[in-house]
Write the structure tokens for this entry.
Amino acid sequence: MLTGLLLGDRYISRLPNHAGYFLVAVEDHVSAPMVTPRPRHTVVIVVDGLRMDSAETMMSTKRLLEHGQCRVTDQGGYTVSRPIYALLSTGLEVDRTGSRNNDSAAPLRAESIWQVARESGLRVSGSSHLPWFHELFPEGFDRFTLARSHEDDVFATPDGLYDVNLFHPLYVDEAGHQTGAASPEYKATVARADVEIGRLLDRLDLTRDLVVLTADHGHRDAGGHGGAQPEIARVLTCVAGARIAKREDRLAFDARATAPSLALLLGLRFPRNMRAGDDVLDQIFAWTKGDKSDAAYLADRHAAVARFRTENAAALTGWLGDAPGTWPRLYAREEAAQSTRTAAMLVLGVILLLLRLRQTTRAAGVAMRRAALFTLMWLTMLVAATWLSHHLVLGDFDYTVINLKVRYLPRAFGVVLLAGAFAWVARVVQERAWAGLANDAVTFSALLLLCNLGHIFVYGWPLGFPLPSPAARYFPFFGAIAQVGFGALALFAIVMAARESRRR
Ligand SMILES: [Zn+2]
């Protein structure tokens, strides 16, 4: 029970590692400068928690579509806010930035487009209801305005716009968590964002300025994000302004191409650690009409992309020990190591189970085979009952169910209670004795502890590379609660069994 409490509490700090994994730093510089003028103001709007279907209803996206294009963006499978801010800013996937939750305020080692812009002499401003973009990239902003309350309009910049401006309102996400994306409250906040963005667009001139409107992730109908469900992992990204090609259709886009796209459109060098090799960088060249006067600049940028790919391949060959140096090969090697460690834990689990079964059958005497089979069946049914009650009470077995911690914890304990009630009914009512349940509940708790510790052995501390599946990365949260809950059940059964044997 105690280990459950400890492990659950420590998992938060086990998730992030802002030093990153397998970072490749490529030094780039623009040797043939952009000839067409750089946008007067560049505006990047990240509406937190804005679902794609809601974005499509906004007047602001329609206005941007008149001067540019909107794309269906894939944010990847790890749709947690801070990790996506890191992904959007660096062009690097969550596996490697090392930003894996909202809790770590440490700066990120991977370089952001905000730092690149400042280093190139542009003035960069940020305005948000949260300090997180600034915490990740403290050197990325000349000015960062933190709104005092959610009532404040982050788009109102009384001191004027800078060269590059990041706007990040939070209230849409907040409504998503409180009442769900299907609620009128959520739609009202989307309408509010639409009005505030509209006022910002009124201040801009899309023949001279550049606007990027996107989101970090969507929301479930009932509220919640963190998984790879389409209504969460797909958002709308609209880009409009000078030189942006007008198109009505929705091209596919990858969120990792956001920072490199900004670099290309602003005439800046690419951020140092952006994903290159098996990448999505060809998508960044389709935003513009391809002005002839910029032919030399674009050729230089294509050459830069090729250089990033070559240098990444060289680093990969070094890590892998032989050619070809590709990301899929590195993923395969690291996943194989995780699988080997999983297999080792499974063997350990089977050994533990066999030892416990031997104890059970010894006590059962003649009926030993029947007793062993019954224990196995009961353990399997308990796992199935837990799985089923999780789906009934909470939903999918991933981050999306956590939504609001205060509501998650009692419901997660409810899941354990429901499965525990099943365990009790299946045993005590039938056997009219506590001894059997006490024995098998201890076995179950021991196996659960092995799973919780095994997770650390398999995926590392901090959680390493690559990231486990959505279910496996959620497991430590629920596993810790299950450890506490079923541990309590085992303890209760032991006490009851002891009282029973004293009475006899
Ligand atoms: Zn959120």
Q: What stands out?
A: The mean pLDDT is 95. The longest helix spans residues 327-364. The chain has two domains: 38-279, 327-503. The first strand starts at residue 42 and ends at 47.
